[in-house]
TrEMBL record:
GO terms for molecular function: ATP binding; ATP-dependent diacylglycerol kinase activity; metal ion binding. This is Diacylglycerol kinase. Belongs to the diacylglycerol/lipid kinase family. PANTHER family: LIPID KINASE YEGS, SPHINGOSINE KINASE. Residues 5-133 form the DAGKc domain. The lineage of its organism: Bacteria, Bacillati, Actinomycetota, Actinomycetes, Micrococcales. Pfam families: DAGK_cat, YegS_C. One of its GO terms (cellular component) is plasma membrane. SUPFAM superfamilies: NAD kinase/diacylglycerol kinase-like. NCBIfam families: PRK13057.1, YegS/Rv2252/BmrU family lipid kinase. It comes from Pseudarthrobacter phenanthrenivorans (Arthrobacter phenanthrenivorans). Keywords: ATP-binding, Kinase, Lipid biosynthesis, Lipid metabolism, Magnesium, Metal-binding, Nucleotide-binding, Phospholipid biosynthesis, Phospholipid metabolism, Transferase. GO terms for biological process: phospholipid biosynthetic process. InterPro entries: ATP-NAD_kinase_N, Diacylglycerol/lipid_kinase, Diacylglycerol_kinase_cat_dom, Lipid_Phosphate_FormReg, NAD/diacylglycerol_kinase_sf, YegS/DAGK_C.
Amino acid sequence: MKAARDADSAALVINAGARLGAAPELAVGKLQKAGLPISAVHHVRSGADLAGTLEQVVAAGHDLVVVGGGDGTVSFAAGRLAGTGIVLGVLPLGTANDLARTLEIPAGLDAACAALADGKVVDIDLGRVNGEPFLNVASVGLSVGVTESLSPRLKRSLGPLAYPVAAVRAYARHKPFRARLEFPNGDHGTLELDDMLQVAIGNGRHYGGGNAVSPTAGIDDHTLDIYAIPGAPLREHVRIARLLKDGSFVERDGVHHLTTQHARLVTEPPLPVNLDGEIATVTPADFTVERNALHVVVPRHSSAAVLDG
């Protein structure tokens, strides 16, 4: 299957609780009109519903599963579909939609449906932390505080602007931590890090509503990008914040940046880990990347990934 139109049977799974997921019937009509063989439609409202629904659509034998929701919903689905040969289609209905940004999927339901119907199939990598999947970024520190400050009400009222608001709130409450990064493959020496603001491990390119992990990060480069930002005076963190969009903050003095395929993060104290906007595990955390783990539909013009097989 090299294009979405080659699918014999497609299922649509929509998170009705996503910021833009309240009118799923619009997506059904648009996708069917565009020529996709949507034969099953599922609305989910919780993680438990999503897990059961994904088991159902995998067992039904669909060769394309279109998932509408935010990054957390799509990442969870990716973890279930990885290795099955089933192609994932993405409708960005959340607040940040960073995977869609990485894959160059347009915002807006009309444009996203059109790009999906006419899209090509590529291979992308999948990150894992303690066995849990992530597509964009897994992190500890400030980002967890941001996630905890992102109430559904804030996201619905402010949209992507909710992220800088939540970041300011989280920064005011942040407590520094110690961290140790180990590299089981021996490609780097152990890093001992004191007084940390955040440590992040990226599989994709974008996170946090459009920030870049680094200038060179990609979702099919078969590596993880790691950055670690230490504590510093507020003025230095403001300078770093201004460079988040293009990822050039990793070039600042004091910021650690490296790439690897396997890392282990130990923190003092143990800390929760944020996976694409969902707090799903705790440190110590083992990070790996699964090469070409997932087939996904992207717009024909997208250069984010290729079909490796």
